[in-house]
Design brief:
With 291 residues, the chain is of the alpha/beta class. It folds into 2 domains: 202 residues, Spore Coat Polysaccharide Biosynthesis Protein SpsA, Chain A; 83 residues, no CATH class. Helix content is 40%, strand content 18%. It has 11 helices and 9 strands. Strands 1, 2, 3, 4, 5, 6, 7, 8 and 9 form a 9-stranded mixed β-sheet that branches. Strand 6 and strand 7 form a beta hairpin. The chain starts with a strand and ends with a helix. The model has no long low-confidence stretch (mean pLDDT 95).
Length: 291
């Protein structure tokens, strides 16, 4: 078995089949699907079982969160490389073949990462992601990697699990990539073979200020406690904090909560003056300064 693809899902009865079919349509066939149902309360299980595909290994757990589901899947994986797909996203049918070729060309590297596009389901506004120019440095400023494009050698995946803190939820990917990037070489290939679907229920679009502050603090704590980042990249943690503060600021500004928006924007600039040159700063100022 070459690839083990881990799919965490929760209450996705209406769309999970789209993700699965994008996998079963792959031109490269040496893979297994490990689908971890994170305690769904809808008909997700019944929908999945309608496929009756021997490649699919289905597991249902309690609702512990996406990081736990991914870790559960990693531990069950039997492939040479572990990869992931969020159950609301899609893969192009050449995704696995592209990864296999790149891995073969580079003598079975530790980790590779392809590229992705994102937009509406009908792809009318599809945009291409820009991969980081320098690792690990660029990752401390923002995360332009995604687990859907990650292929990690199985022994490394099993030794480097996601942080399962509930407070870190939906920032655990960024935490994971930063920790991997200071330990291993991640080879990048600018070939878009995954598609992230932007929809109203996407978890990162749901904004609650207090939860985001908890998320930011959990991320800073996780990085500070890391044996390598906390020691060798301590100054970079300020950039991570600045990025999180600017995300909070833009959400507050969009909701015309100007006083708090200015506060978090000022914090971001104080911790990392380069934040002022980001595209997000323009959006923050636009919403803060217009009626």
């Amino acid at each position: 078995m070459f690839f083990s693809i881990v799919i965490p899902t929760y209450n996705r009865e209406k769309i999970v089949l789209n993700a699965l079919r994008s996998i079963t349509a792959q031109t490269f066939s040496d893979f297994e699907i490990i689908l971890v149902d994170d305690g769904s309360t809808d008909a997700t299980e019944e929908v999945i079982k309608t496929l009756n595909d021997p490649k699919i290994r289905y597991y249902k757990t309690e609702n512990f969160g996406v990081a736990h589901a991914r870790n559960y899947g990693i531990k069950k994986a039997s492939g040479s490389y572990v990869t992931f797909l969020d159950s609301d996203d899609l893969l192009e049918n050449f995704h696995f073949q592209t990864a296999f070729n790149f891995i073969s060309e580079n003598n079975s590297p530790e980790i590779i990462h392809l590229n992705f596009k994102w937009g509406y389901e009908n792809r009318s506004n599809a945009k291409e992601n820009k991969l980081p120019a320098k690792l690990p440095d660029n990752l401390f400023m923002s995360c332009s990697l995604h687990v859907n494009c990650l292929f990690i050698r199985a022994d490394i995946a099993k030794a480097n699990l996601f942080n399962e803190s509930k407070e870190l939820m939906f920032a655990e990917d960024w935490d994971y990539f930063m920790k991997l990037s200071v330990r291993y070489k991640i080879l990048l290939k600018n070939k878009c073979s995954a598609y992230l679907i932007d929809h109203e229920d996407r978890n990162m679009r749901n904004f609650e200020k207090e939860r985001w502050i908890l998320k930011k603090n959990a991320l800073i704590k996780s990085l500070g406690e890391d044996k390598i980042i906390g020691k060798e990249y301590k100054n970079q943690i300020k950039k991570v904090e600045a990025h999180m503060d600017s995300l909070i600021a833009v959400n507050l500004a969009f909701r015309k909560q100007r006083k708090e928006g200015f506060y978090f924007f000022a914090r971001a600039i104080f911790n990392s003056p380069s934040e002022i040159f980001t595209r997000r700063t323009g959006a923050i100022l636009k919403h803060l300064l217009t009626v």
